[in-house]
Specification:
It contains five helices and three strands. The protein is mostly helical. The chain has one domain. A three-stranded mixed sheet has the order 1-2-3. Helix 2 crosses helix 4 (65-80) and helix 4 (65-80) runs antiparallel to helix 5 (82-97). It starts with 8 loop residues before the first strand and ends with a helix.
Length: 98
């Protein structure tokens, strides 16, 4: 996988100094990788995904919200598991449909 430091944007930092990034969809569009693969890679590299930025980026790109919501749901489930998905999905769905 190509280096991704120039594609992603640092949008914050957690209390334990992990960088929070945006630009996931730019990366997906540039390299054609499935979201679950991108999620796994950036997480393995120690980054935290800004879910709200991801959704806002998708909306700004004019994606079909329903189709993107289904893709995002599946990708989060595949990359992080059901327990993680259950913790965050209601807020993400609200943001996506709000």
């Amino acid at each position: 996988m190509p280096k991704h430091k120039n594609i992603f944007t640092i949008v914050g930092q957690t209390e334990n100094n992990q960088l929070v990034i945006s630009g996931i969809l730019r990366f997906k569009e540039s390299y054609g990788l499935p979201l679950e693969d991108i999620f796994a890679k950036v997480t393995l590299d120690g980054f935290i995904i800004s879910w709200y930025h991801l959704i806002d980026e998708a909306i700004a790109m004019g994606v079909n919200k329903s189709k993107f919501g289904n893709e995002l749901h599946t990708a989060i489930l595949d990359a992080f598991g059901k327990e993680y998905l259950d913790k965050i999905w209601d807020r993400l769905e609200e943001r996506l449909n709000g």
